[in-house]
Amino acid sequence: MSESTTNEPAAGESNTRRQGEPEGQKWLSGFVSLIGLWMAVSPIFYDQAASMLWNNLLIGGAIFLLAGYNYYRITTGHSTSTGVMSLVALLALWVVVSQWAIGGQIGMSGLEVAAMGLVWSNVISGLVAAALSAYIAYAGGRGVRTGAAAGTR
């Protein structure tokens, strides 16, 4: 009997490990997904303008779904989707910039002091989500470029 020389994963070993996806990318994607969920529901806890309510709901929901999709991909043994995580980083930056872009409502005259909590929540959440998703996209893309050609073993 000879030993197998293929690079197939051993019983119980996931394809993720074989493809070089670090376990941390999976958990960071899950964390970014939760940040997106927070962005979507945070207007419930703060006073806000209607435009910010819809912005947070739509963009936060998209971040939640896209980062969750990347988490699912990694969990099922596929590689990180660098395109999806790059889009998440851009959407998260939009959440930061949208505080000033949507109606120019930042400032004591535009928003009440109570609504400033949502502004700071969006800025901090957006910056953290953008940084983490940019890192995930970079780390995932770096592994693809330095690895073997697609379809080879």
Q: Care to give the gist of this entry?
A:
With 153 residues, the chain is mainly alpha-helical. 66% of the residues lie in helices and 0% in strands. This is SPW repeat protein.
Summed up, the domain count is 1
Q: Give the integer mean of the pLDDT values.
A: 78
Roughly what percent helix? 55-70%
Mind describing the biggest β-sheet? Answer: none
Low-confidence stretches: 4-19
Question: Which word captures the global form?
Answer: elongated
Oligomer: single chain
Q: Roughly what fraction of the amino acids lie in strands?
A: under 5%
Q: Give the beta-strand count.
A: 0
Gap from first CA to last CA: 23 Å
Give the SSE string.
HHHHH
For the CA atoms, what is the radius of gyration? Answer: 20 Å
Notes on the protein architecture:
The protein is mainly alpha-helical and 153 residues long. The chain has one domain. The protein has helices at residues 15-19, 23-41, 50-75, 82-101, 116-146. It is elongated.
Layout of helices and strands, plus pairs?
Blueprint: H1 15-19, H2 23-41, H3 50-75, H4 82-101, H5 116-146
List keywords for this structure.
mainly alpha; 5 helices; about 150 residues; single chain
